[in-house]
Amino acid sequence: APATGAHSAILIHADTGEVLYEHNADDRMLIASTTKIMPAIVVLENCALDEEVEVDSRSVGAEGSSMYLKAGERYTVEDLLYGLMLVSGNDAALALAIHTAGSVEGFARLMNEKARELGMTGSHFENPHGLDAEGHYSSARDVAAMSLALLRHPKILEYSGIWMDTLRGGETQLTNTNKMLKSYAGITGLKTGTTNGAGVCISASAVRDGMGLLAVVLGSPSSKERFESATAMLDYGFATFEAGAFPQITGRADTLRVTGGVEQQVALDYTVPEKML
Fold first, then answer.
1. What is the pTM of this model?
2. Does residue 36 carry a catalytic annotation?
């Protein structure tokens, strides 16, 4: 099994959701800016990318990482998603939250509703940026669940997989916080995070030879260890497992005869996975 110095970790096969490795995966923890995975989902499901957002004064001057937004500036939702995913802008998270729900509190309710919909039983969100707050927590398993949900929006890979971009006509440079984009073959995203309470975290997605994996690392003691743990987990997955097409099933019955019922027969419906390990 892969070695990790993190408090909590999990490795998931992205296509089937099968758990390939886990360590304290259900411990409830602060998760820093990996929180921003959930706002990205909520925004993509409730807003059009070309919607115009006027920056509210409540979004300006947010603690921590920032796009340095100014009140009254206008951006598209897509511009702010860039800021959310590349530079982990806390001000971008607040601007999107207020635009989508009218308030941070209202947006947090949308986040929690989506968490329940995804079966994330070990999570509760108080804010969209992930700064340490009482009652704000998740787990490696739940971060993996929302990461897989976000990956169902292919558009997100156009943000999370970009190393560098600009805004304001080239005046503002955006550099991705995920250094694995420059060091790991097949990396596609997804989100990093660091706070004093949460430690150093990452949800890392990668694809090789058509197989997608997701590694979540929470509570690492350093940025270096975070990336080393994610790398070790992904390496383990790609070296140990292989994805193949699910075999075709021939000769399946279309109906099942019923004895003693109102109907003489019922139709059979088969759900067959596309891939298997």
1. 0.88
2. yes
